[in-house]
Amino acid sequence: MDSTAFRFVLTLGVVNLFADITYEGGGSINGPFLGTLGASAALISIIAGLGEFLGYSLRAIAGHVADRTGKYWPVSFVGYAVNLLAVPAMALATSWQIAAVLILAERIGRAIRKPTIESMLSYTTARFGSGWVFGVNTALDETGATLGPLFVAAVLFLKGSYQMAYAMLLISSLLALASLTAARIGFPVPADLGEGKPAPEREFTPAFWLYMTGGALFAAGLMSYELISYHLIITGLISKTWMPVTLAFATGFGVIVNLILGRAFDRVGMKIVLVAVVISALFTPLVFSGSLVPVLVAMPLWSVGYAVQDTLCKALVAGILPDRKRGFAFGLFYAGYGSGWLIGSAAVGLLYQESRFALVVFAVAAQLCSLPFFLFGHRRQQARMMRR
């Protein structure tokens, strides 16, 4: 059973590898592409922030529907289809408004399928450790997130247009959907991969709400790549052709980071979360320093921030999932996370045009303010476990 369960983890990882090639490839040029269509820095940041807000806030609804109906696979297919087909459709956008709608559609599709996939993966965490399960899955995500921007960079290097790059990503979209079909055939009932024990909690605990608040504060200071890429291009630090390579550099580092942090979480727990948050907070002052070397140092730190989001936060929530509300719990957590992202993106987009120094102070302070909430949540969880 252990080998079967881990094959399931790897199979869904392959699905996400192809999916990340698609939307991270597209995401590496969304900012500059919106700029060519007439969008300002504030608009680009707000569009990105609204997309992330929808991508997180709608997860609670999708998770609730999946929990109530038990239709985890059908919900996943709908989400992946919307998520993946919106990206190559960007090749047809003739205005920033159309491009914005497609960016939002891509995020909505991701919102639909994320809680169902995380719920199905959660059945294997008792066997392998929540940090390792989500770390492996995210590492495969990040592998795709590395290959996607490199693929787009190759298209641009060969004198292709933004539109051609988007259109070529249809290939990885179809491969992801084919892999998802194979996963559905091979593992029709993921719940059978678990140990048959009920989840440790029956309702939402104080630790859950503290973790969600910490996640929202952390997200408020986590910069979107749309704004980063826009900034680096208009300041002349990095050219259009090299921008996707910069993202690939960060995500490639993220493959290793997610595996290390995932394994470390299973061994030392909350300590690694706190350390990773502090490291992530160093990103913003470096990327807005005005010179290339600090930017190159900053990009791996950006990948640490996304490892907190995609591996460590999921591992935290997986330990306090309410029984029979797995999808809703993941979705609700990331609804709060997405709210923080929207507020933060709007703030940094406006501050970018007024004061870069104020932007840096806001982003660093927001992430560091998440630390006590993560710590207090952990203490409440530990105290609850001791009373049981």
Keywords:
single chain; mainly alpha; Growth Hormone, Chain: A; 18 helices; about 80% helix; globular
**Number of helices in the DSSP assignment:** 18
The helix content, as a percent range, equals over 70%
Query: The CATH topology, please?
Result: Growth Hormone, Chain: A
What is the H/E string? Answer: HHHHHHHHHHHHHHHHHH
Question: Beta-strand level of the residues, as a percent range?
Answer: under 5%
Q: How many domains would you count in the coordinates?
A: 1
CATH architecture identity: Up-down Bundle
Radius of gyration: 20 Å
Q: Strand pairing plus helix content: what structural class? A: mainly alpha
CATH class: Mainly Alpha
Indicate the mean pLDDT. Answer: 88
Main pleated-sheet profile: none
Identify the overall geometry.
globular
CATH homologous superfamily designation:
MFS general substrate transporter like domains
Helices and strands, with pairings:
Blueprint: H1 2-36, H2 41-57, H3 59-69, H4 72-85, H5 96-122, H6 125-128, H7 130-157, H8 162-168, H9 170-186, H10 206-220, H11 225-234, H12 243-268, H13 270-281, H14 283-287, H15 292-318, H16 326-354, H17 356-368, H18 370-387
Helix pairs in contact: 1-5, 1-7, 1-9, 1-11, 2-5, 2-11, 2-16, 3-5, 3-16, 4-5, 4-9, 5-16, 7-8, 7-12, 7-15, 10-15, 10-16, 10-17, 10-18, 12-13, 12-15, 13-15, 13-17, 13-18, 16-17
Could you characterize what this model shows?
It contains 18 helices and no strands. The chain has helices at residues 2-36, 41-57, 59-69, 72-85, 96-122, 125-128, 130-157, 162-168, 170-186, 206-220, 225-234, 243-268, 270-281, 283-287, 292-318, 326-354, 356-368, 370-387. With 388 residues, the chain is an all-alpha fold. The longest helix is centred in the first third of the chain and has 35 residues, at 2-36. 81% of the residues lie in helices and 0% in strands. The protein has a single domain (2-387), classed as MFS general substrate transporter like domains (Growth Hormone, Chain: A), CATH 1.20.1250. The mean pLDDT is 88. α2 (41-57) packs antiparallel against α16 (326-354). 58% of the residues are buried.
